[in-house]
Amino acid sequence: SAILDYFKEKFGIGGIVISAAGNIKHKDLIDKIKKNISGMENRKYINDFTGQEPPENGRVKKIHDSKTSSVHMCFGGLGCRRDSEDKYPISLFTNLFGGSMSSRLVQKIREEEGLAYSIFSSNVQYLDTGVTIIYSASSPKNADRILKLIKDEIVDIKKRGVEEVELERAKENLKGNIVLSVEDISSRMFRLGKGLLFDKKVLTINQILKKIGKVKKNDLNNIVDKYFKLDKMSLVALGKLNKGRLL
After folding, report:
1. How far apart are CA 6 and CA 63, in angstroms?
2. Angle CA(164)–CA(82)–CA(131) in degrees, nearest 5?
3. Which pLDDT tens digit goes with each residue over 200-218?
4. Residue 129: in which H helix or E strand, if any?
5. Structurally, how many domains does the chain consist of?
6. In Å, what is the CA distance from 67 to each residue of 52, 93, 118, 140?
7. Which of 54-58, 72-76, 129-133, 224-228 is predicted least confidently?
8. What is the C-alpha separation between 16 and 148, in angstroms, rounded?
9. 45 lies in a domain?
């Protein structure tokens, strides 16, 4: 009964976003939608989602023993919300730090040192909070060294700052990924729907590219200081590890 009550309260016409992309005619789509939702109640949707403030000192260390031959580590912390002004700077930073083949982590840890099978960084943005992620997969003997090198790179950026050439490279990489994503019909559909559902608006591709282009080096340096605080970053690992040494 609780599930049915929730459905009746939340799933009315006023709370639905329908997104479509591809070889469609707008009028035909509208006619089909009207026909198929004619039996639904025309209730106004009340969004009572308030979210919650993430913990300030949420540092966690969890090591899960496993018989797998490789070790999987996830090192990270809090990120920004979807509506934050840090949205594009943090996406650019995670791109240049470990989001492409030319990024710092990939070049240092995988290509130069040959320590990891896979390593990357990314960020996820939600309505009320966000998360930054640095992931690696390696043999158990390399885990300690990888984590140290990740920390060293963060310290190096905090000390010397982001270089202009790597910022421009990250901009071009991120812009290219965005432009390529519109070639996929499903990605285009999800982008339109998420924009309306979460942000109440849909930015054009050109608007997004302009926002990315306006990001400066100092914006990324501020991102590192704000979100990559080593004493507040958490670690979760799976595999055979020395629990006492990591983090």
Report:
1. 38
2. 75
3. 899 999 999 999 999 999 9
4. none
5. 2
6. 37, 34, 19, 11
7. 54-58
8. 47
9. no
